[in-house]
Amino acid sequence: MDHSRSWHWARLVLGVAAVVLGIVAFSWPEATLRVVGFLFGLNLLLMGVTRMLLLLFYAPNHPVLYRVLGILLSLLVAIVGLLCLRNIVASLALMLVLVAIGWMLDGLAEIFVSLGSGRDGGGWRIGLGIVTVLAGIAILVWPNIGLSAFLFIGATAVVFVGLLLVISAISGLRGARTVTA
């Protein structure tokens, strides 16, 4: 299997997983928010501690200033993770902002990569990027819409992004099959 077909199959699997995740989020909204807030805080804590340990014990060739600053920033990330674990609502608020920014950046990247690649399924990929950017903007423009609305918008965006990934993967696989036939 060539690289292009592997990439399309990976997009297909990710798309199906995104659709399933969105459906689960719609089905159990309160539990989903608690789990997401907890996992976000845990992720920050583990990232901070891991990076700190790596800088302490496995980066002896790095400059001292780099290691000291890296350890301090890693400690800060770990502390933010602990605070998020203590207060799931604060964890969700921080995550809300980071997810919105991440969605906008990911959507823009998808649009620019699609415009520059000239590959099959480009229109669907541009659509994917636009939906992702708009979802991020909606979260930042209306921060007071609450976590339930965030969950609804997030789950809807995840389902649509998943569907667009599936469609673009199928389009790419069809195009690759036509080329090899």
Automatic annotation (TrEMBL):
Q: Which InterPro entries match?
A: Acid_resist_chaperone_HdeD (IPR052712), DUF308_memb (IPR005325)
Stretches that traverse the bilayer: 6-28, 35-58, 64-85, 92-116, 122-142, 149-170
Among the Pfam families in the record, one is DUF308
- Asked if the record carries the keyword Membrane, the reply is yes
Taxonomically, the superkingdom here is Bacteria
User: Keyword set for this entry?
Assistant: Membrane, Transmembrane, Transmembrane helix
Q: Name one GO cellular component term.
A: plasma membrane
> What PANTHER family does this protein map onto?
PROTEIN HDED (PTHR34989:SF1)
> What is the protein's given name?
Integral membrane protein
Q: Which organism is it from?
A: Actinoplanes missouriensis (strain ATCC 14538 / DSM 43046 / CBS 188.64 / JCM 3121 / NBRC 102363 / NCIMB 12654 / NRRL B-3342 / UNCC 431)
